[in-house]
């Protein structure tokens, strides 16, 4: 195992830094078999501040290799804030004249935060993203504002232009810029005062997404999605991420409607970013924390983890309108021993093994006809402390699906909301509940990923039992499988 | 005291029915010194169903007189669903030809729910709203839909027309109709897919509202507000109410922007309705419950209460954008003995008296310069059970204001969310926190009503102590006053 990754609350299949504080994912890109993830990182402390770009690489998004810091500030009053990265295969930037086409250059686009303002800057890498040189002509965009950040750049094939989405946070606005060389940017349009405003907009991401014509089936069509993170002032408190389905023509984003929609019904999924360069798959991940409590949660010597890597699609659900479907990316490289597989009626206690401490669970619940008010409980329990992390279906009002972290006792704080719920009106042949439990993160998916929740929790005892109890009239097909640690070498 | 209003959890300054189940306020109107409130009512049970229009009257909105049921279904498979009432001073309907102008007719507009469909119907009252005759030409609007309900009618002076807002719930739409006689209605426009969608839209309300140019100061201008309730699928679970500021020209509502905004950061304020006939004041109230748990909360022999009556205004806050300011209407008729008035540093325990059990609290918190991370706690405590209902300011992230009902132990349910929070970035000369504690309802207002939260709670012991504790660097000016019961005769 990679040294330093064996603490009681250390996630085993979610990325976290070995030490110190991490927040937003930055510069996600994929090229030639390797996923690169940069992230907001304080290399000198366990709370936010002194922002650098940390770096890690992976070939499956579960086994990560920590890399040296990729971007550092030049002085103590600078911060390298969030941004993105692209593969400049055609050397549009001119930085990579001497490189072979099999080793294209990487350009990082980030916000430089100083006491006086925030500007957009670029840096280039000739070694595939491991080391960067800051562009001598920085900043590439300067509007004399101290609220102007988080550039996410994509290549827009139809117009053959680079497109940047960047936030004017306190104006509740996303501004789109276009460029042909990543150095000279022209303002194209502004998307303003849509969705849930909170106190400010951050981390806009524009991405093309496959459209499904059912929860599972790809229609072959695509739409664009604009993702905007809000902090503070999310509807459940603090930070959250919302999405807008729509069309993008190279200059203007036009939403499908004027509705506000979240990507996650928990409250630990912020600053979601999508990987550049994954072709026709939309892959992304978020920061699995919330600014309301991230600086004080009880983990050491590090704080924060990323969500599971997920694959995304859009579906215009006939009841719930547009949903952003997400599912964990292929987990085959971390699947370990099956702990239980079979049908459950009434109740079942499943002992969780002593492996990495991360588990996959998959439950299909079926209901007899004519049974109205019923409940299905799925509870992770600590034998030693009797703490409980609860999930369940309530059939009497919608029905609802709930997550309740109030029974885990390692962290008590007025803003650490205990209970989350969503409508879960029915999936394919019943209700499908699946996901991953990983030491301090519960990630739950409903009905083929139509809804999902990321929920951090902090138990004092290890959750070593999974208890299922079903009211009369309900039955479930259950699969619980141990997961290998992503911090072990792959075998 | 009115008989039947002395139970441990019976609200004393909030309206509740003596027995059985209540939900949405209906038909709110004011005429000639009397406020009339109708409400969705099941006269035969303590859970929702068998919907009638209950009725109560008041001259101050705190002392209520229960009246006989105003509208009843004709058969067991009918329901008299939500709707509104108007004063037809000019006898536009033709129902009131023989009445004197000092005793104008009242017309109620409601949804008739049957197993096959929902239609809009009217009934008229020649005795000022106490008894109604259903119109022989009903329904007045029938679109052959079983999802078409909750008509709210206003008089639009500029176009000299009646205007109805009514919901197509599962289409996330509000439809506007116009009429000159309340009988013949013409579709004018549709407002669709704005704001938070959830699972369905209910109880639209269109109202003209004074615009303030600070938290407190009336600019003399007005705007229109469209209020839409959502259930299920609110961001905190279940039901909530959202508002859209905008303009209305008699046929079309045009929102100021495409943002989603709530009226309350708690989760017990649904189906808000505004009083017809209050001239240039905008008065309204909501149902202080949530469909996720309203049928099972531990009160008997009744369930549910209304929120405090509130006066509304709009303010375009320079930081938070449009806010719907609300404050309790004049409480002078229920103010009783002052229990504490003075400055608090460090901490103070205030004994709550043995009066009605309802209290008004008013706290201004000031902060010394240079003090960053601080906390102010305001906690209602039961001496007998040690239960706590907590509120507080956290200065370290925004700052935030929180409400935490997890310390009251009379009701435990996975959807009874424990913790609520909002940004509270600063008021006039500090932070202003005030409101009412009333046996099972905590109603909290921040910064001159710019934000508010309605929170039901169910403690086993009586909350008989109010504890204030302030970190170093904070001080507070505190006023706690006992309230008279609205169910006592006025003196």
TrEMBL record, chains A, B:
Signal peptide span: none
Record key words, sorted: Glycosidase, Hydrolase
One Gene Ontology cellular component: fungal-type vacuole
A Pfam family: Glyco_hydro_32C
GO biological process: sucrose catabolic process
Chain ranges of the Glycosyl hydrolase family 32 C-terminal domain: 348-469
Protein family (similarity comment): Belongs to the glycosyl hydrolase 32 family.
Protein name: Glycoside hydrolase family 32 protein
Native source organism of the sequence: Umbelopsis ramanniana AG
């Amino acid at each position: 195992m990679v040294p330093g990754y064996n603490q009681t609350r250390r996630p085993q299949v979610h990325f976290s830094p070995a030490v110190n504080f991490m927040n937003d994912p930055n510069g996600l890109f994929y090229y030639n078999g390797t996923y690169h993830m940069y992230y907001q990182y304080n290399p000198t402390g366990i709370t936010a501040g002194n922002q650098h770009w940390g770096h890690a690489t992976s070939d499956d998004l579960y086994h990560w290799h920590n890399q040296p810091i990729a971007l550092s500030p030049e002085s103590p009053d600078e911060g390298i804030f969030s941004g993105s990265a692209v593969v400049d295969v055609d050397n549009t930037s001119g930085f990579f004249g001497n490189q072979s086409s099999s080793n294209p250059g990487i350009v990082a686009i980030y916000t430089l935060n100083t006491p006086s303002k925030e500007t957009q800057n670029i840096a280039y890498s000739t070694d595939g993203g491991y080391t960067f040189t800051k562009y001598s002509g920085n900043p590439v965009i300067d509007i004399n504002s101290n609220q102007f950040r988080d550039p996410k750049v994509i290549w827009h094939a139809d117009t053959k232009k680079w497109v940047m989405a960047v936030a004017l946070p306190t104006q509740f606005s996303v501004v789109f810029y276009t460029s042909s060389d990543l150095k000279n940017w022209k303002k194209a349009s502004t998307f303003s005062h849509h969705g849930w405003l909170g106190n400010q907009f951050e981390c806009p991401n524009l991405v093309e997404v496959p459209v499904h014509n059912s929860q599972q089936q790809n229609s072959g069509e695509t739409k664009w999605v604009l993702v905007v993170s809000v902090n503070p002032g999310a509807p459940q408190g603090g930070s959250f991420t919302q999405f807008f389905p729509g069309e993008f023509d190279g200059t203007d984003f036009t939403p499908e409607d004027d509705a506000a929609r979240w990507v996650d019904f928990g409250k630990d999924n912020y600053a979601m970013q999508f990987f550049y360069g994954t072709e026709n798959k939309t892959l992304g991940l978020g920061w699995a924390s919330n600014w309301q409590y991230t600086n004080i949660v009880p983990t050491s010597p590090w704080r924060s983890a990323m969500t599971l890597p997920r694959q995304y699609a859009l579906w215009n659900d006939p009841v719930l309108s547009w949903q952003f479907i997400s599912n964990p990316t292929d987990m085959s490289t971390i699947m370990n021993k099956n702990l239980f597989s079979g049908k459950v009626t009434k109740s079942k206690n499943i002992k969780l093994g002593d492996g990495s401490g991360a588990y996959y669970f998959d439950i299909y619940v079926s209901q007899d006809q004519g049974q109205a008010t019923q409940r299905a409980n799925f509870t992770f329990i600590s034998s030693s402390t009797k703490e409980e992390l609860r999930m369940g279906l309530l059939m009497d009002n919608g029905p609802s699906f709930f997550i309740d972290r109030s029974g885990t006792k390692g962290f008590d704080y007025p803003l650490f909301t205990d209970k989350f719920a969503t409508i879960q009106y029915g999936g394919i042949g019943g209700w499908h509940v699946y996901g991953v439990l990983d030491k301090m993160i519960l990630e739950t998916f409903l009905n083929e990923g139509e809804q999902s929740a990321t929920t951090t929790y902090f138990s004092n005892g290890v959750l070593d039992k999974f208890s299922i109890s079903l009211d009369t009239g309900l039955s479930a097909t259950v699969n619980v499988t141990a997961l290998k640690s992503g911090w072990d070498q792959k075998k």
